[in-house]
Each structure stands twice: as structure tokens, then as C-alpha cells.
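Session log. Operator J.P. requested a structure for one protein chain; no other inputs attached. Running the standard single-chain path with C-alpha cell output.
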Amino acid sequence: MTGSSKFRSLAIALGALFVVAACGPGGGGNGETLAADQTFRFGLSNDVTSLDPAHVSSAVDITFLNEVFTGLYRFDNNLKIQPDGASALPTISADGLTWTFALRHDVVFSNGDKVTSADWVWSWTRTLRLNDAYASNLEAIKGAFDVESGKSTTISGLSAPDAYTLKAQLAAPAGYWLTQLAMPTAAEVLDQKAITAGGGDDHWTENVSSYIGSGPWKMTARTPKQSMDFAPVKNWWGGDTGKLTAVHVDIGIDDVSRVKKFESGGYEVVGMANNGPGPDDVLRYKNDPTKSKLLTVFPGARSTALGFNFVKGPFASKPGAKPGADTTNPNDPGLDGRRAFSMAIDRAQLTDIACAHSITCQPATGGPISKGLQGYLGDGADPYSKFDAQAAKALYTKWDPTGSKVKGLEIRYNSNAGNDKVYANVQAQLKQNLGIDVALHPSDFPTLQRDRQQKLPIVGRESWGADYDHPQDWFDNLFTCAQAPIGKGNDQAYCNPAMDTIVAAADAKPLAQAIPDYITAQKMMVNDVVWATMFYGTQSYMIASYVRGAGYNSLYDFNWEGIRLLQH
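Structure written below.
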């Protein structure tokens, strides 16, 4: 689903293919002659889902939040945590429960309003009150759940001893929390006055005059479903905003058209904001000696799967259960169906056809957590990822002998060139290997997200880009009972209290000690086929030869402050 929430060590080696790029990230200023026009341009297939840090759950949206808003900490281009709104790393008590943050005194919003500890308290309380996907980044604080549930209007564990000190009392030790705070989402500081003037929670992001942050960039124009424009903040409190003078984003430009515009000089990159080129164009560039110099395929810590509804429809483990209730069932009526669907998909064929001969993605055989990350089960460790048409057909026939269970079944997914190929191939394989006709139900991503807020799909695309290299990022955002209610991160409504107990114990431990518990928990999900994980992702970028400093670090786009355009 989303994207993309947390982090520990992120020198990730995913084993992805790299194509040499002539103008990759980095490079110094010596001998560079900059272009007179420093406008950086790229396109998006779909509009952003939300521009509100409290509501964002998409990798597309995170790209823009990262530039407009300020957290206590932020990731640099090498995924190292750096102080941002805080003046230093937190002071943590010996028992791990009390975190004290010293705030910078010079932070201001782009409208000139000063930022104090009261703004952080108000912003974090608002995030928990709205209780959307990344509210989980603040759930470590004592009293956070009371605000999420509406039992309280204040976070009992959060206080502001003075204007430039923020203190958090945690409910339990959480060694991963620092990395959650560095994410460009729920923990950023907002201007209460601007939000109120802009019409409150539902409307403040609609007008550039009220869309106020304290990051290095501000939005200067927006036409929904058409375009967005950004400019660096003058005299930004954080220092140098870089060489770019403007960023222009077109919206509603499909994968093929983005590449054509790039080739005609209309875009500097294709790939920014999780909007990479389609697999056909990636393959075309890879096989062209000249064009290949403009292509880089970065590792992408993302898994994509078919997710099955555990409370409604033919795959349900406990039909009729309320999302968030226990779905464990020793007589699980949907288990054979979930296993049959997973084993009927030849992942090698899928990635060969849909991922430019397995360049833009790679077959997934080791469970939901992506290959190369902490908690990966190992190649071939998911027994239901092994393609076996005969065994799949036998399971399916036992489960649905008349074909009635899958009558009218649709696969929900968000449409783009890559996804269309993926699900057309899945559809064809289910027809060939199980003898069933499954319809496809594509939509744009905002529509899919909106529909998920109302009801869970019976079967559909699930995709998660890791926020940092820690299994807690996956479990606490996607698979626990707390995430199972509609509108949270667990689109399957899967709830296994026994697994939750294992995960909770792992969350409190140092990473090295916690890994065996996370492995156990993930094997429980693999056995239940919560996700039929199909492939692990990569991120393809086309970067014009005159661009310096653009790129991707496995999780995020490089910051705009480091991008510059050479004379060309």
C-alpha cells in the first residue's frame, strides 16, 4: 500500500542491477558552469493523495513533505539521521523511557511565525487526534493511544518544560523511535495559526497562503490534478537552500509521456517521487549504449503482493469479524484459497514480462520483508511463493470445486504502465493455472486509497516501501491488530494476537536480539498467506546529462537542496 515509517541502519544492499549513469548523485562545484535557469521539472502520473503530514501515507507525497516541513530530525542523502528542528540528538534516561529534546531557537515557519515547543506539542497531538496511517510514529509516547481513541485531548507523556525543550515519556522502551521521528511525515511541526486561517484540518492544504511549513521549500502554486510549483524559502533559518530557484511538477502525465517529455528536454528527471519510467522504456534505455548513460536503477526497499481480505469474501479466515478483531481460526475456510492463488503465480515469469526482464523488480521468495533488509527470511523461505501449478490447482479444486467462490472476483490496484503489466500477467496466470477468470479493477491511486478508507478490497495490490531497516517498521504499520481497522495500514484486517505478543516483545529489544522473534512472527504470516508476496522492487531513474545531485537512496529521493543544473 504505502509507503511507506521507521529506521536503524540503512546501508542497504539489495542486490539490484545498477546501470552506470553519466550524471548520478554527488559531485562538487569545481569547474561547474550552472545554467541560467535553475528550474527543476518532473511529472507525476497521479495527483498527491494528501499534502497534510498527519494524513500522508504515500511515497509520492513524502517527497514533497520532506522539502516543505521540519521534523526534530531528518535523513540526509546517505540515510544518516541529522538534527533538524532539534539542536542535538535526544538525551535518553537509563531506563529508555524519558527522552528530552533541546530545540533550536532560530526555527521559523515560512510566514515568519516562530516555532517553539508548544508548536511541537500541538502538532503531535493533532497527528494522533486525526489518527491516520503514520500516527503510529508517535504511538511510543505514553498516552498516545488515549488521544487516538478520543479518550483524551492531551498526550499525557508529552510536555514542554520551556519554550525550547520538549520532553517525552514513553510507554515502553522503543529503540527505533529516533528513526521514526526522522521520517518526513507525522512528527513534523505545523503552524496552528496558519491551519486555522486556512479553514482547519480539512482545507488548509488547499491554498498556498495557508500551506505553511518550516522546511527549505514552500509551495507557490497548485492546480489539483494539473500541477504544483515550489520555491526556496528566502533567508531560510536552516541555511543554504541550494542552487535551484524553482521546482515545477506536472500531474496526470503517464509513464510513456513522461519519458517522451524527458527526451524532448521538458523534464530533468523521470523517477522522482516514486514515478519511475515504465518497464518498456527502462529496457529500451538499458539496451541503448547512449541512453544507458542516463539510466540508473537504484535498489528499492519495497515489496509488492496480493493481499487477501481476512473478514469478508471467499478468502476470509473469520468471515463477518469486525476489522481489528481476532481473525485466527484453526478451521480457516479461506486458507486453501489463499495458498492456491499464491502458488499459481510463477514469479519468475511475472517479473520477466512485467519488470523488463526482472530489471525493475525481482521475484520474491523470502516473505514480505524485502531481500537485503533485517528480518528477510531467506531465498526460498516462503513455501507458497514456489510456483507449482499442479499443487495449486489441487488446492483450488478442493477449496472451490464449483467455481462459485471466485465468481465476480476483482483484483484492485492502482493503474500505471508497470502495474498494468503486472496484474494483466497475474490475471493470465490464474486463468492458465487455476482455470478461473478474475477481473481487473484498476483506478488511480487516490481513488484506491479513498475506497480503502471505506471498505477493504477482497483481493488487491499491497505494496510497502520500507521506511528504515528494522522489521518493526513492517509489523507495526501493516500486520498488527492495531492496524487492522478500516483506514489503518493493515488492508487485510489480519489480526493474530499471538503474533502481536511476539512482535511487542521484539520491539522492546535491541535489534540483534529481536531478529529471531521477528522471524518467528513473519513465518506465522507466511503460513497464513496474509500477503502473497510477488516481487521486490527497484527504483529506475532517468537523469539528464546536465543534472547533478539527483538520485535515490533506497528509500527517499535526494534532497532538492543538493540538485543543480549545468549549462547545456
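Operator note: The two ends are 39 Å apart (CA to CA).
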